[in-house]
Amino acid sequence: MKPNLVVLTDFSLAAERARAYAAALAAPLQAEVHLVHVYYPQAVPLDFGTTLPVPYTRYVQETRQSLEILAAEMPQPATAEVLETTWQDAVEQALKRYQPLALLAGLTATDSLLDEWMSNRALPLAHSTGYPLLLIPEHLPTAALHPPRRIALAIKDASFHLEPQTRAIAPLLDSLGTEVIPVCVLPYEERFGGWRGRQAAQQCGLSGAIPRCGLHKVIRELPASGILQGVDEVEADVVALLDQGHGWLHKIFYGSVTEHILRHTQVPVLLLAAHLESSAD
Questions:
Q1: Does 160 share its domain with 252?
Q2: Is 103 left (phi over 0), alpha (psi -120 to 50) or beta?
Q3: Residue 115: pLDDT above 50?
Q4: Would residue 49 count as lying in a domain?
Q5: 119 and 22 in one domain?
Q6: Close Cβ partners of 202 (under 8 Å, ≥ 6 residues apart)
Q7: Which of 105, 140, 175 corresponds to the end of one domain?
Q8: Is residue 150 within 8 Å of 181, Cβ to Cβ?
Q9: 281 belongs to a structural domain
Q10: Rg (CA), the chain
């Protein structure tokens, strides 16, 4: 069975970058790329208290044609489809149909949580579906459109395990020979730690080579900036984050390491659904 990649697209600049990255990723894997656009007709309230969805047939036809043109331009085999249903149902349909190695989506730079929610609807999907979600920054340079050679896996000094579906990406990383380096940010007083996290990384099943991985430590008080520093120090071209699925309420009241990295990253972000021994973010 030919491997599959699913790209969620809304024709934004970020989505176009995700499509370009998917093309570069698909080539060495001989994978098929599936472009998916979600259209859900909006309901219109009526005077007698009910609502009716208003299908926009012309929009759907034009969108499907545009998507088919993009698929035809892909250097690798590609399909295009517009799914007329809710966002969650559309994603579930695509995952069931294609069983992809990963989901890809664009990552739009935002200034607030509301902007993030409006522009980056794919963010919760890693946790809600269990599938690995690869987010491609909208301003990723053309020179960076290549399969990952080295991934910085951000870990805590705590045990964790990946959700079963998350390990679907392992064949992709193994085929590409991608190196995975755990990066642990520690305050000075805990500088001798990190080994519980590395042991969990070695046993997590993210790739065939990860049982032999080392550990890169960053001694810094702030985890988010420390992770980005670690990405630079190990010269990683992707940063992988363990997604615990805290949700928007957690971000509003406590802030989020993940949110900071999504806003400031210069490389693609791989979100991996995981369960950690400690749930603090």
A1: yes
A2: beta
A3: no
A4: yes
A5: yes
A6: 210, 211, 212, 213
A7: 140
A8: yes
A9: no
A10: 19
